[in-house]
Inverse folding.
């Protein structure tokens, strides 16, 4: 089989590559690498608190608004059901820039000080944009690679987890150590990426690749290399004072590693190109579909599982009439069938406890470091560690749970149970800190937080099908902002401010005597994190119910129908 490309073939190959699903996957990696700006809230939240004179409860309310916007993705899912992917990405870009740009204007004093409710709307709008990136890039990629959805979700959400550390390096190189400019960066950069690749990402017919698993492991290797470099450079920056040129050099290497999956995508598209020129086996006619440059067998019609087949005359009933007539697990549920099923509600409760507590811990990490007496430079490293280990948690849960399902038929919800139990250890380390324990807690919290998202998204796709996945996976994470509001605003923020007021009273001061309400000491977050530990443990027990309910389903061949459809290619 030929491996090279002649000069006259360069343009046709380039066009095929730009329209192929491997380049679309690479573009999805870049979009997801810019879709995690919400994880940088711990870095710039102190700037908002100081500039706008907020107490911790108000700041936590702002954090809840961020989590609400980041997790209420039903609108993006419904929009994706009736509009093309490019429109979804454009709406997300507009929301991202508009929301964060208004926050930047407020923090830099370029506009009058907004009301608290206005700031909540700004950050909610900006954070909601990541749902449009998720729906446009993540859902499309899962449909393009249905047999590798666990690995796919782990990789894509992994890049989202790394985005905080990636954008930190870029902002240090471009703007220096100015957290106000970081807000501006997370406003324009993700929006620009979505606009550039707006026509690249679209649903294509799945093609059975002989070495698809190996290719995804190569993507995994590239992403791990990026994560390791980010971790090393982050720790080095805390020990050594970098010059402007050194920051620029580090950012350049980071960008090169972010773009490294492009070489793998080119190689895989070249393989398809050569297969078209030199088909293996009998001289069967090979054609290329007009809408997607993948190899298709002529005279055969391939349909996505869950899509109506040609000639299917069956008249569908109203979704309200079929709400109690649910299909088998793994088949395509309607939106109402899925939302009213016991499996979804059990998953909802586990997500409420698990992600709600994790978001609370991540949002308060900056203030936790401050209360324990760590310098600002070290607090920034905690936030970066959470971002990096967030990535490791995502790719680990995606690839490991996929391997356990395929080889050993282990239910994916069991992985979620283990992850929630691990998170309890991180919360205990915050509640009862020891010297240096916050470093370990940051790693555990980041890892467990990241591991939950791919598991939740994959479980929803496996139990309820892909037909309405755009809406269902967004509905599935609605429990997260609800948990964040209760655990972050009503619980953690209230208890923190109460301890801070006690400290003021011991000093003979009142609230009006200080500009910012600050609590210093290990007692500030002890009680909230003890409660979070018990809540997360309850979530782990809840997820065991789903393990028991789905164990027979996961013992079957859950990817059989996708494999049968792809084998005709």
């Amino acid at each position: 089989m030929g491996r090279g490309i002649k000069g006259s073939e360069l343009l046709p190959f380039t066009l095929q590559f730009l329209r192929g699903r491997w380049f679309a996957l690479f573009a999805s990696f870049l979009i997801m690498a810019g879709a995690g700006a919400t994880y940088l809230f711990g870095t710039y939240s102190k700037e908002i608190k100081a500039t706008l004179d907020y107490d911790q409860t108000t700041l936590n309310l702002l954090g809840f608004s961020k989590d609400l916007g980041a997790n209420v993705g039903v609108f993006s899912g419904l929009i994706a059901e009736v509009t093309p992917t490019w429109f979804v990405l454009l709406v997300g870009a507009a929301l991202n820039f508009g929301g964060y740009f208004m926050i930047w204007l407020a923090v830099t004093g370029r506009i009058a000080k907004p009301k608290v409710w206005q700031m909540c709307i700004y950050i909610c709008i900006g954070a909601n944009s990541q749902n449009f990136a998720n729906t446009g890039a993540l859902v499309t990629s899962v449909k393009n690679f249905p047999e590798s959805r666990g690995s796919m979700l782990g990789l894509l959400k992994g890049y989202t987890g790394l985005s905080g550390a990636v954008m930190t390096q870029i902002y240090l190189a471009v703007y220096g150590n100015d957290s106000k400019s970081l807000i501006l960066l997370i406003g324009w950069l993700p929006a620009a990426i979505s606009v550039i690749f707006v026509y690249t990402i679209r649903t294509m017919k799945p093609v059975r690749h002989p070495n698809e698993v190996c290719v995804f492991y190569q993507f995994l290797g590239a992403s791990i290399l990026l994560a390791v470099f980010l971790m090393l450079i982050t720790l080095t920056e805390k020990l050594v004072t970098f010059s402007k040129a050194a920051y620029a050099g580090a950012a350049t290497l980071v960008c090169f590693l972010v773009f490294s999956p492009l070489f793998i995508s080119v190689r895989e598209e070249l393989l398809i190109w050569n297969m078209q020129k030199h088909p293996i086996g009998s001289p069967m006619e090979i054609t290329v579909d007009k809408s997607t440059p993948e190899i298709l067998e002529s005279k055969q019609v391939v349909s996505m599982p869950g899509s109506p087949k040609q000639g299917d005359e069956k008249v569908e009933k109203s979704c309200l009439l079929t709400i109690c007539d649910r299909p088998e697990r793994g088949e395509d549920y309607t939106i109402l069938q899925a939302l009213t099923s016991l499996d979804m509600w059990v998953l909802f409760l586990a997500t409420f406890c698990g992600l709600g507590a994790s978001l609370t811990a991540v949002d308060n990490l900056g203030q936790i470091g401050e209360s324990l007496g760590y310098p600002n430079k070290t607090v920034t490293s905690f936030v970066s560690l959470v971002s990096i280990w967030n990535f490791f948690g995502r790719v680990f849960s995606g690839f490991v749970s996929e391997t356990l399902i395929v080889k050993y038929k282990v239910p994916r919800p069991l992985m979620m149970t283990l992850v929630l139990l691990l998170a309890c250890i991180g919360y205990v380390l915050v509640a009862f800190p020891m010297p240096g324990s916050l470093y370990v807690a940051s790693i555990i919290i980041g890892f467990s937080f990241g591991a939950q998202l791919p598991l939740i998204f994959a479980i929803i796709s496996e139990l309820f099908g892909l037909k309405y996945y755009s809406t269902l996976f967004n509905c599935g994470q609605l429990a997260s902002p609800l948990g964040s509001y209760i655990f972050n605003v009503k619980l953690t923020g209230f208890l923190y401010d109460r301890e801070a007021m006690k400290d003021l009273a011991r000093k003979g001061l009142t609230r009006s005597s200080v500009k910012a309400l600050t609590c210093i000491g290990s007692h500030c977050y002890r009680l909230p994190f003890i409660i979070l530990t018990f809540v997360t443990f309850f979530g782990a027990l809840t997820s065991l119910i789903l393990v028991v309910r789905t164990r027979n389903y996961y013992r079957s061949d859950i990817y059989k129908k996708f494999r049968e459809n792809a084998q005709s290619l």
Residues 376-408 form the longest helix (33 residues). The chain has two domains: 21-275, 332-568. Confidence is low (pLDDT under 50) at residues 281-314. The first strand starts at residue 286 and ends at 288.
